[in-house]
Amino acid sequence: MSAATANTPLPIEQGSSLWKDAALRLRRNHAAISSLVILTLIFLACLILPSIPGLLPDPNALDLPNKNNPPSASHWFGTDHLGRDILSRVLYGGRITIAVGLITTTVSVTIGVCWGAIAGYVKGLFDDFMMRIVDILYALPFLVIVILLGQTLEPLTNDLTDSTVGLIAGEGASMTKENATRTWVEPITSLVPLFLAIGALSWLTVSRIVRAQVRNVASQDFVEASRSLGLGHFTILFKHILPNSLGPIIVYTTLTIPSIMLFEATLSFLGLGVKPPNSSWGILISEGADRMTANFWLLFFPSLFFATTLFALNFLGDGLRDALDPKSSKD
Fold this sequence. Notes:
Number of helices: 15
CATH architecture: Orthogonal Bundle
Number of strands: 0
Structural class: mainly alpha
Distance between the termini: 35 Å
Helix content: 55-70%
CATH class: Mainly Alpha
Order of helices and strands: HHHHHHHHHHHHHHH
Radius of gyration: 25 Å
CATH superfamily: MetI-like
């Protein structure tokens, strides 16, 4: 061996983090990636298309001479029994359904993560006490409590709607601009009590998942090393343990969004969610079910968007679960 060869440094092999490995496994999951693309397209369509002036008709505007028209070049998804454009109502309603899923899931996961993390880290009698509270809440009739909370908080929605419209439209805005702003703001702000009610009671399962994960991570060596360095409990829990427990939390979040959206659709179907003339996918499915034998498109298009979104979210959640589980792939 020559001296030059002996002195040549060996190449340094780059390491790979858990998140990079998870991203690589996720990219290999074609169903999850396809679902992510579909979700992105649906979300952007519901968010951007209704915001372009003049592109879509008013979803609540009546056009009785053109009622019950089948899909055509002028009305791609047809019109309903009052002449309202179904495409416009599907996209505007999608905003509400998606907002319910995202906002409510955020509230639910935030409460559940904090509750479960504290219970799993503290352990002992305090942990038992917190989990018994979860057991008690599990025994309560979820639907009845949500309805009662929503009705109790409903008087606050009018003031919230007026404040939000004034903030977005600006001072001195014309009546036309104010009405246009109220068209898409009011359906969301009127559901804030429902957001809070569902989110405040749907965190029970995630709290148990986080508690179990935190107890598992807290027993590892790096946590003991953090304690030996004199770090505080808050720092250890929220800066060291929780970041290493994000995998199950992310997976559960993606699987919670469709269940929340389905629950909102159920409430709207029963007349307890979005109030007419505003629409959500649940309202549109309810209206379409009443007239499905005469006008199939009233049920078909809202159901297509809703079912596609739910399937895509579930496929994405399954893909994330497989990607974030180190045992799910042998490289």
